[in-house]
Structure formats: structure tokens, C-alpha cells
């Protein structure tokens, strides 16, 4: 039906199938295919505009099509939903996340600022949207701080470590210790995501002030058990990394680090490369398994991967750091479901996909690629990480154009059964 370009009929049929069974994977994927292959967003907006639940309907379609690769189209529908309900934190948060996947960080930041401005009197305990808005009001171009550094226009002051308030030093807002409802959690997630965006783009100087504002309404809560556990994890990671970063950053050439959340740890530090100082620039791809990079995949982390990689200048030196999520989530489950006979078999399939993608990037973009071993951070999955890295190392070293960063064993204790204490971050 889609091949015949009868998109309107296909759209209506897939939508009806989803109404009958919301978990109908074929219908959900079919709906995303229709949106990807046709210019039907205006039709969808017009159709839903006649309904009293227009915003909710648009957001529901946006959620479905994002899962199957129609990410920019999903963002457009979330944008429309938010325009109809400008106080809806869920629509705002999902729109911001969608723009992150599209690597449209400036637009994501601008949407966050507008949401804060439209809801400036809304409070989370002692903290209002206007408090956050005022703190970031001077930032018009999120890339300015990093662009100034690269062009030698940054501060010439002596580098100084960033000072970040710690949880124990923060005065916990006792009035906010009631359990947060869903709307309040999404609001806090928006605050967290603003910090994540600014960290990724190198706009670091404002972050200690934002953390000072947020800590009193965050500290003392079990947010890792809520729907915003991922946003909270990024916030906690960044707040622990900042005290190890000195500003101003040096005006030296970049060495890009493309990876999952572990790419943040090395961000904005320097390394020596062939006698030349380089700055490690994080290129975050959220939630990517190497398995997602297979040609048939339409899952949005793959879309995120190519959006991020395409912004790296041709001829750059790039470290790729992926595979931890495969080890943590994918391989064991696949073996349990009898998709693979052993972890080794599953790992080899994912690694082959990964290597093929990297070799193609090296050839087409002239990247000088270094492959980072998977970090053995979790006790529960370290045995799988060891298997994955052993196979990954062999594949990389057999490649004529990829380089293996050979220090995995150095990350472990002498007995090779635990992560060395100096590399621990969580706590």
C-alpha cells in the first residue's frame, strides 16, 4: 500500500490498527514509515486540530513514530502539541529530547527557555521556573563559549577548577520533600536536561550556578527509582565531573570522543597526541547499542548516531566508545531468549556490525579512528565486558584502518576482577 503511494489510506489503516491494539508493532512501524515517506504532517495536524484532545493525540503519534526513526517528524508533532498546551511538562520534555536526538541543541535550549518563560511562576518547592530562566537568560548562542575558545577569544585568566556545591553542602528544601508527582518530575527533568545540553556543547561556566539552584530541591530523594532516572543520572554524572574541569579551556585542537554516556567522563580534558595537546570533545549518542547500527534498524539511537557523527569535521581524530549497553542489556537477554547460543556468538554479530560502520566512516569521512574498550564499571556485567572486549580487540587489530586503545586491563585491579578505585565515579 505504501509502495503505491496511497499514504492517506495507509495512515488511516495503521492508525486504526493501533487504536485496536496499541502494542501492534507492525502497525506502529507502518505508521512511522508513512510519515517518513510522505509529507503528511500537515494532514495529521489538521486532522487532530478538530478534536478536543488534539494535543494528547499529536503527542501519542509523536511517541510512536519516534521509536521507529521518524525523529524530526516526531519533534514537529510535539512542538504542535506544546503550542496547544504550553504548560504541559511532558510535551516540553519529549520535544527537548527529540531535538537532542536530532543534534539540534540550540533549538532544544531555546524551547526549554521558552517553556520556562511561559511558566515562570510555576514552582518546585523553593525553586521557580523563573529562577532557572534568569540564570540562563544571558545565553543566546549555546555554542558561543566553545566557539570563542576555538577561535582564541576566550578568557586569558589562569585556569581554575570549577567549584560545584555538593549535596551535603546544599541546604535541602524541606518543603519539597513530599513525593513529586509526574508533572513535577518532568519539570525537574527539564532542569536536568538544560545542564546536560550546556555541558555537551561546552557552555560550562554557568553550570555551577545552575547546580546550586537545583540541589536543594533534588537532594535527599530517590530519583533513580522514578521516571526521570535517566535525566537524573546525567545530572549526577555532570555535577561530579565539573569539579575536575578547569576554566578557561585551552585553545587547542579537538580530539572527538563519540560514545554513550561514558563519553562525558573524558569531556573537556586534554591529552597529548604526538607531542601536541588536544582537547577531548564529547559527542554524545544516547542509548546506542552497537546492534542498533545494523542496516535494517530504524530505532532512534541509530538516527542520533549519524546526526552526531555528521557534525564531526572530515579528517578528524575520533575515539569511538560504544558497546557497554550491549553488555548490560542486550546480550544476556538475547541468549536467554535463545536468539544466540552463547554470549560470544551474539557479541561477534554486534561487533561485526560496529566494525563495518567504523571502517566505512574511516573511508568516507577520512576519520582517524581509535576504538575504546568497553568500560568495566558494573560488577554484574564485568564478565560479559571482558568477553566483548576480547573479541572487539581482535576485530579492531585485524582491521587495516582502525586503531585499538589497548589499556583495558589497566582499568582493573591486579586480580582483574574489579574496577580500580581511582576510576570510580558513582557514589
Describe this structure in words.
The chain has 427 residues and is of the alpha/beta class. The chain has 16 helices and ten strands. The strands form three sheets. The protein has a six-stranded mixed beta sheet. A two-stranded antiparallel ribbon has the order 1-2. The protein is globular, with a radius of gyration of 23 Å. The N and C termini lie far apart (54 Å). 40% of the residues are buried.
How is this fold's topology laid out?
Elements: H1 7-20, H2 25-37, H3 41-49, H4 54-67, H5 71-84, H6 89-101, H7 105-118, E1 123-124, E2 127-128, H8 129-136, H9 144-150, E3 160-161, H10 182-201, H11 207-218, H12 229-241, E4 246-247, E5 253-259, E6 270-273, E7 276-284, H13 300-309, E8 317-321, H14 324-336, H15 343-365, E9 368-371, H16 382-397, E10 402-404
Parallel strand pairs: 5-7, 5-8, 8-9, 9-10
Antiparallel strand pairs: 1-2, 3-4, 6-7
Helix pairs in contact: 1-2, 2-4, 3-4, 4-5, 5-6, 6-7, 6-10, 7-10, 10-11, 10-12, 14-15, 14-16, 15-16
